[in-house]
Design goal:
single chain, 4 strands, 4 domains, rod-shaped, 15 helices, alpha+beta, Methane Monooxygenase Hydroxylase, Chain G, domain 1
Length: 425
């Protein structure tokens, strides 16, 4: 009993751990099924995506690097997913993954540790270095306007440093979330990723407005210093201290990049929401295509049995039945005409992507072929009989020649003796 329990546990463990490889999945689509048209391309690196409690492989159909559709396969079984609700979530997630990865590889990506580090540095400078410089100006002058402006700017710096710290934290969060989403994608995280992105975009917009206000006040402070009665030496020093830090000026490029990436992210999510239903509907068409192909060209055990174990596929049966040397001799000549018509219509409908019609005609053609095979050839002109008779006659002639050849010495010796006997007589 204990051994059985251990065996069952190991069996369960193996079934739980086993998963198809990406190569097995792509080969399944390329060689073992006919869901795709011959000219249809797909990415060689399908996405391994979790949805609910199950994992799936999602193949991306592409044209000129643009996704045109998707197909999902069970992670542990070569079976294409048909559920609309599951496919909708999987396809949405796969499109976001594909699009984000493509954009990251082709363009400058904002969510980097480098940009996060810039705000780490900026937070420190805005909370300590810049206030220290501004306080030096305030302590070095008795001008009340300058003092008031410095106080205002210091209070602004307090807000800016806090916002900069928020941005650094948000960057850290989105970088970690994005990395996890890309390495172990889950359909429940697809919308959350956009929320994470938008949080950073919003914070950057807030900071951009704060920076703009601070820059205006810095210019006004410089103007007050320039117009004050402070001596020239102090004035020059105060003007330098009033300038905004270089680190604050350098993040302008991040604001611009944020706007570009934000627009692209909106485009990605807008596209997936508008197209996902058509991608899901296309799966039904792919299933119809595969079924139609199988009906005409793939092996069918029932058809094999009904054709007296002669033909596995309709296509093979059609080729044999309609051969010039066989066609005139079938008893069911009426069914032969129907077979030719139905098979032709099945292939025609398949080429026109009318797969349900193709299946219908293929089924009729199979019925025609079965009837023809069951009825067989006409007895008077049975090519099988004619062929067998020809073979028998040929074998008989060959056997006679062989006997003659093997007994040629005996035959000639007997003939000579007869000649001698006759001479003596």
């Amino acid at each position: 009993m204990k051994k059985i329990a251990v065996f069952l546990f190991l069996l369960l463990l193996v079934s739980f751990v086993y998963s198809l490889s990406s190569t097995e999945v792509t080969n399944f689509f390329r060689s073992e099924t006919h869901y795709l048209e011959s000219n249809q391309s797909f990415s060689e690196t399908p996405f391994f995506i979790k949805s609910g409690e199950k994992n799936y492989w999602v193949i991306v159909l592409i044209s000129e690097r643009t996704p045109t559709g998707f197909a999902a396969v069970l992670s542990d079984k070569k079976e294409v997913v048909e559920s609309d609700s599951i496919n909708r979530q999987l396809f949405k997630t796969a499109y976001i993954l594909y699009s984000v990865n493509s954009y990251r590889s082709d363009s400058q990506w904002i969510f980097s540790n480098s940009n996060k580090g810039k705000f780490n540095t900026l937070t420190r400078i805005l909370s300590a270095d810049v206030p220290f410089k501004l306080n030096s100006i305030k302590e070095g002058t008795a001008d009340s306007e300058i003092k008031n402006k410095v106080n205002l700017m210091i209070s602004m710096l307090d807000v800016m440093s806090s916002k900069s710290n928020e941005i650094e934290t948000a960057f850290d969060s989105v970088i970690s979330f994005e990395l996890n989403f890309i390495s172990e994608p889950d359909t429940t995280d697809a919308d959350s990723l956009k929320s994470k992105y938008n949080e950073v975009f919003s914070l950057l917009q807030d900071f951009k407005e704060l920076k703009f206000e601070y820059s205006l006040n810095a210019l006004e402070l410089k103007q007050l210093i320039s117009e004050s009665e402070i001596n020239a030496s102090d004035k020059q020093q105060f003007l330098a201290l009033a300038s905004e830090p270089q680190q604050l000026s350098s993040i302008e490029s991040i604001f611009s990049l944020s706007e570009d990436v934000s627009q692209r992210v909106d485009e990605i999510y807008s596209a997936v929401n508008s197209k996902v239903n058509s991608w899901v509907d296309n799966v039904s068409l792919m299933h119809e295509r595969n079924s139609a192909y199988d009906e005409i060209y793939s092996e069918d055990q029932k058809f094999y049995t009904k054709t007296k174990n002669n033909f596995y596929t309709l296509n093979d049966a059609f080729i044999y039945i309609t051969k010039e040397e066989n066609s005139p001799y079938w008893k069911e000549q009426g069914k032969l005409s129907s077979l030719k018509k139905d098979f032709s219509e099945a292939e025609k409908a398949f080429e026109q992507k009318n797969y349900s019609k193709s299946v219908s005609f293929a089924e009729k053609a199979k019925s025609d072929a079965i009837t023809i095979i069951e009825s067989g050839f006409s007895e008077s002109t049975n090519p099988f009989v004619e062929n067998i008779e020809a073979i028998i006659i040929g074998l008989a002639v060959l056997l006679a020649l062989l006997i003659l050849f093997n007994n040629r010495k005996k035959f000639f010796k007997s003939a000579e003796e007869e000649e001698i006997t006759e001479f003596k007589f």
